[in-house]
Structures are given as C-alpha cells and as structure tokens.
Design brief:
Elements: E1 9-15, H1 22-32, E2 34-41, H2 55-68, E3 72-75, H3 81-91, E4 94-97, H4 98-109, H5 113-128, H6 134-141, H7 159-189, E5 194-199, H8 205-213, E6 230-235, E7 241-246, H9 256-261, H10 263-266, E8 274-280, H11 286-299, E9 306-312, E10 327-328, H12 334-339, E11 348-351, H13 360-373, E12 375-382, H14 387-396, E13 398-405, E14 408-416, H15 417-423
Parallel strand pairs: 1-2, 1-3, 3-4, 5-7, 5-8, 8-9, 9-11
Antiparallel strand pairs: 6-7, 10-11, 12-14, 13-14
Helix pairs in contact: 1-4, 4-5, 5-7
Amino acid sequence: MEYTNEPIEKVILVGTDSYEALDELRELAETAGAETVATMVQHIDTPSVSTYLGSGKLEELAAVIESTEATGIICDDELTPIQMSNLERILDTKVMDRTMLILDIFAQHAVTSEGKIQVELAQLQYRLTRLTGKGRSMSRLGGGIGTRGPGEKKLEQDRRVIRTRVSQLKRELAEVVNHRDLTRKRRGENPIPVFAIVGYTNVGKSTLLNRLTGSDVLAENKLFATLDTTTRSIKLEGKKQALLTDTVGFIRKLPHNLVDAFRSTLEEAKYADYIIHVVDSSSENAEDDMRVVYETLDMLGIEGKKILTVFNKIDKLNSKPVSNAWETNEQESSDEVETHIRDARAYMTVRISAKTGEGIEELIKSLSEMIGQDRKYLKKLFSYSEMSDVAEIRNSGSVITEDFREDGIYIEAEVPLRIYSKYNK
C-alpha cells in the first residue's frame, strides 16, 4: 500500500542522550516521510517521569515549535501514557515516540500476510496501554505518522474489543508460525546448508542476497526497506548448494512488542546452520551496530553457530583497495586493520561491495570453505536396491566419483557429518 497525498510532517527530534544519537532517529523520520526541522537534547540520566523533559527545556521546545512551525515532535524513547499526555497538553502539538515511529514504518513496509499480522499485533498491543486520553490527541492528528495500520477507529473501541482482536491475530500468527515450522522441518530433511543473513538495518543485506542469487528482492537506501523473510538458493564451489535466508534488520531500542511479534521471523537465524553477519564498514557506528546485532542474537538464544562477518560497502571507503582473502579469527587481517573494525565472534571475515561486486568471489569461496569444513569424505558401495540412499547422497553432498558396477553403485562424495555418520557404518 502506498500513502500518497499526505502533507509532509515537519517534526522536531527530542532526546536525552546526545545529538549523535538522534542521527538514527532522523533516518527513521525520513523513512516515515517526515521532515526534520530541528533537534533538541537535554542531557539527563533519567527522563522526567511526568514530562520526559524538564520544565525549562519544555519552554525552550515550545518556542522552537512556534518558530519552525513544526507539526509535531518525536522523542527518542518510548514514552509512558502519562508523559505523552502531559507533553501534548503542555506543547499543544502532536507527540510521537520512537516506538510509534518504528511501528508506522513497519505498517508501510509490511507486504506478506505474516508481516501485516505481526505489525497490526504490535500496534494494537502498543495502543492498548494508551487508550485513556488519546481521543484529544488523535482528533488532532488527522493522519500521517502513527495513524497507519489498524487505523484510528480501533483506538475508539474499548479494551475488550481490542483484546479480542489481539487474540484473533495471535491465533492467525500461530497458524503462520506452524506453517513456517513445517517448512523448516522439510528443509531439515533435505540437508542443504542454510545461511541466515543478519545485520543492522540498511547495511545492504537485500543487495547482497540479490548479488549472490540473482534475485530481485527490494533493496533501498532506507531503514527497514524489507521486513519479510526471503529465502533463495545459491550454487557454490565444487557443486555445493546452499540456501540464503534474509532477515529483518536489527536496530537500537527495538520495541519489545516488535521483538515478540517478529520472533518467528527473527528465529530464522536460530534454525540456520550458519550466520552471515553483514556490517556497513563505511559507517562511523559500525562497532555499535555490531554490538546491537549480537545482543539481539543472544536475546533470541542463537549461539554456537559459525559466523561469517561480511564487511560491506568497501566502495565507500577512502582507503586504497587491499588484497582480499578470508581468514579465521586467529589470523591478523590486513583488511580489518585498514578499516579499524574487528569482529571477535566471527569465524571468518571478508570485505566486499555488494553494490559493485568487489570481493563476491572471495565471499563465495568462504561460504564453500565453511560448508567443506563441516563435511567428510565418504566412500561406499550401494546396492541397486539402495537407489534412494544414492539419491540422498547426490542431493546432500558433492559427488566426486560415481561408478556403476555389477554389484552396485560405488560413490565417493563430500557429505555433511550427519549423512556421513548415517552411511559410514
């Protein structure tokens, strides 16, 4: 769905950390279709329980709203109902918080039925705690950020009706999750290795997927350009085959409702065999972005998997190109030294540009190496009554030799450890 013919909202970004911390909020606002006309920060350890900002800062903010003719403010934290209500009363303007902004973006970008269910569920759970006193503020909104998705009329319904809708959405989502689990189970029966692509939002995951598989997944220079999981097949070296699964981008201060609602999507990484961690090597916040990604993976209980960290967007770096080869974490990487970025949790690292294609061959080699290290060389003679077993070897491994003999089919192949243990008896 496209949202057109809506006036561009002029907003002031407000935070309690630093002006640098508002850079991401500015990108989020731009993605939602708003124009940032000013930013304001009050350096305090704990925001005011009742008004988020102090009284003096509120007077200053009111003057900035008047001078810039801003139509609203966006706070870089999730506001309590009391904070939002008091800010609306004192400033007499539209008040939004970080959670409302992210939910609005998700409402714009959700395409599949699962994505739409997850977004609406998160929005209703968020709004359920903010029904009291919203009539005045919602009547002022008229449209724009914070009003998409379920719509204004649902905010006018009582809690019982909204809770009924939430229960219905949870049942629908459970059916989708069951279908996803069946898909994962079938994928597990067909032992093609799966790589889950994770990373901070807007680091180039979809562009990388398109580059590696020749697919046409939407790839825009915007936060949360794609929300829905996409899986594509890729052919690697030595007749190896793998599946690449793109996931929703991570972000700082991801609302808890969204973590819960999108858990089934995020858990694609949990059920994958390997992790491809994409990092924007040109970003000044690359190390912080990596930290957020790993914190999210830890929160989802994703551990013990080999991680290939891909330092993307090297075309944006001012440094001279250097030789590019994968390396284990024990090795000192000239690439990492040059970009001043290291990933201590990575099993391998590689530098690429998904946009220009530089380093893609080395990346494919690295993927093949990771799979190869978890495979063993099987030599076995199968009788002609065991053709189904031979077919499994062909599908799951890389056949080196296949010799048809009088007493059966002699196979030499690189196969996953599970297949090796099954037939090497």
